[in-house]
Amino acid sequence: MRPYVIFNSTITLDGRIANKESRIMSRLEKNRIHELRETVDAIMVDVETIINENPLLDVRRGHEPYRVITDPKAEIPLNARVFESDGKKIVFVSSEAPGKKIEK
Hints:
Blueprint: H1 27-37, E1 42-46, H2 47-53, E2 66-70, E3 89-92
């Protein structure tokens, strides 16, 4: 069976994306993201999203998808909110990651 992939991104009309200081999603868009999350097996983000936005990556109702985080250098803070949410987490690191940081 071929994988079913949903890509979601939010940008402004002039091509900008959010950063720590500015959020560009409305409440309606946030609700839609939660609806999308209910339909998937995994939510995938990069470590920059975790560091800049510190999201829970939660689902308001329904099953809990995997939380998949790409983090080549193992920079994710261990107190990140994503670790507070239910559901399994998978963090992908590269050979650049210090061995001490990937023991867990």
